[in-house]
Design brief:
Elements lengths: L1 E4 L1 H7 L4 H11 L10 H13 L15 E4 L5 E7 L5 H19 L5
Antiparallel strand pairs: 1-3, 2-3
């Protein structure tokens, strides 16, 4: 699975009242999101929750982390998060990341 994770959306919703807090609790499946303050903490919480559904995720390996997508002004728009039910999926994700990095290096405005 490749998941579009919008940290901007979470930050926008956080602090808007109980109605929105319930939405974030439903999204994460826990109210632990309230202790998160950084993008890394939100993503790690989300990925750890996916592990409960038998998704294979290596949280401690930097090269397996998400891919951050930015706009023309270099502002982060969203991150792509990978999760697989089989360890072989990590191999495919590494290859995707390599291809994206090559494209970014040649034409940074494309991705």
């Amino acid at each position: 699975m490749i998941i579009t994770f919008s940290i901007m959306g979470i930050k926008r919703v956080r602090g808007r009242g109980e109605e929105y807090a319930e939405s974030l609790t439903a999204f994460f499946g826990t109210d632990e999101w309230q202790q998160c303050s950084t993008k890394r903490e939100y993503i790690d919480l989300y990925r750890s929750r996916l592990e409960q559904f038998n998704y294979y995720i290596q949280l401690d390996v930097p090269e397996h982390s998400e891919i951050t997508m930015r706009n023309k002004k270099n502002a982060e728009v969203y991150s792509l998060i990978f999760a697989s039910k089989h360890p072989l999926g990590e191999k495919f994700w590494r290859e995707v990341k390599k291809m994206i990095e090559k494209i970014r290096h040649r034409s940074p405005r494309l991705l």
